[in-house]
Design goal:
There is one protein chain. By secondary structure, the chain is mainly beta. It folds into three domains: about 100 residues, no CATH class; about 120 residues, Jelly Rolls (Sandwich), CATH 2.60.120; about 120 residues, Sandwich (Jelly Rolls). The protein is about 10% helix and about 35% strand.
Length: about 400
């Protein structure tokens, strides 16, 4: 059994030579994926690997961090990155129930995410050093978009036409992230020779994913809806034709993704939200949280919140805290009213990070149109952790009905 790439090259992994190597021999090629990824991303990768001839797939380092300790566990067993069973993302184990049989997820939502590593030398294991050390130089991205024609090949293993025959209505959306996009003053984008509209479907600064609260790199992300006939199962091509450039940095195609949506879902199963939210403004973050009392002010725009505050029976205050552990004790006070710690929920954002969301249900009367005051009283911290927690984000969303 051979696992090409050891999971460091996923969507870009070409299995042709590997399959030729084991042809006629009692040896299997097992495609490998390193570190946890949402089920949508894992599905797309698995479909692609099976299409390319893999005998099976392996999830490497999928859940190797410490988690599952009970409340009586010695604090020395905990560390940053620890994930408790009750904090696990509900999406976490989904892929394990599906990957044994591609038919079980043929027409489930998936996301193709192509890797991107710099081609230039960098300090440490980065850039060309990473490419050589991990044997992943087959990864094409990023691509400098100088004047001329630039083509990136990519695999696609979904069949939207077959899905329509079953009564589904799939949507296929291409996303690209180009640094210094404004310097592309005249360019065309093509998929398999088909020109995409000059006016994209959407341009956004950030994109939320199923990794709760986690976003792709800062944009602008640009998207286009792709007709079924623009793509085919197997190898495809994305082409940028750069006709004219402005002075300044050469634009860089950093990332590309394809979302295949068979069913429209709530953006994240971890957030109890209905799409309504109140923008939090004028907040100074990050805020370090050593033992003691810490205050931070934020503002809710009265013009945007007059009707919003009354539109739900309750709202949720979400605090994103870096380096929080199970043993830390803290109280949260919103505009002079202490929030109940018994009713709060805590969930790690993603097992490879040290961030957690702490969610409190709040009455609309506890939020003020205009200036608000948030106080966090840290009573105790895990003595095994040398770095104090840090408040890095505050959000307010509507509670699901």
């Amino acid at each position: 059994m051979i696992t090409p790439g050891c999971g460091y090259m996923t969507f870009s992994l070409d299995l042709v030579e590997w399959n030729e190597l084991v042809e006629g021999r009692d040896c299997w090629i097992i495609a490998c994926n390193n570190k946890w990824k949402p089920a949508e991303e894992t599905r797309a990768w698995a479909k692609l690997m099976y299409q390319r001839g893999a005998h099976g797939v392996q999830l490497f380092n999928y859940g190797h961090l410490l988690y599952g300790h009970g409340p009586g566990t010695d604090h020395r067993a905990a560390r940053p990155g620890t994930v408790w069973y009750h904090e696990l993302h509900p999406d976490y184990y989904q892929a394990l129930h599906e990957l044994h049989d591609v038919n079980s997820f043929s027409f489930k939502n998936c996301r193709y995410v192509w890797e991107s590593y710099e081609h230039e030398p960098r300090n440490g294991e980065a850039g060309i050093t990473h490419r050589r050390h991990r044997a992943v130089d087959g990864i094409q991205l990023p691509v400098k978009l100088t004047a001329g024609r630039h083509t990136v090949s990519f695999g696609f293993a979904d069949d939207p036409a077959a899905a329509r025959g079953l009564g589904l209505d799939p949507k296929v959306i291409l996303w690209t992230l180009v640094a210094d996009l404004q310097n592309l003053t005249n360019h065309d984008v093509l998929v398999n020779g088909n020109p995409l509209p000059r006016e994209p479907l959407q341009t956004v600064a950030q994109r939320l994913t199923l990794r709760d609260g986690w976003t792709r790199p800062d944009g602008p992300w640009v998207s286009w809806m792709l007709p079924d006939e623009y793509l085919h199962m197997g190898e495809n091509e994305l082409t940028f034709v750069v006709n004219e450039l402005a002075d300044g940095n050469v634009p860089l195609l950093n990332n590309m993704e394809i979302d295949v949506r068979y069913v429209d879902l709530v953006q994240s199963p971890l957030r109890a939200e209905t799409g309504r939210s109140i923008p939090v403004e004028n907040i100074q973050l990050p805020l370090e949280l050593p033992v003691g009392e810490h205050a931070v002010a934020f503002r809710i725009d009265p013009a945007a919140s007059d009707t919003s505050l009354a539109s739900a029976d309750s709202w949720q205050l979400l605090l994103k805290i870096n380096n929080y552990t199970h043993y830390d004790e803290l109280d949260v006070i919103l505009n002079g009213q202490q929030l109940s710690s018994e009713e709060r929920t805590i969930r790690a954002e993603f097992i490879m990070n040290n961030d957690s969301w702490i969610t409190y249900t709040v009455d609309p009367t506890q939020l003020l149109a205009g200036d608000n005051q948030l106080v966090i009283q840290v009573q105790q911290l895990n003595p095994a952790i040398l770095v104090a927690p840090k408040l890095i984000a505050v959000e307010i969303t509507a509670e699901r009905k």
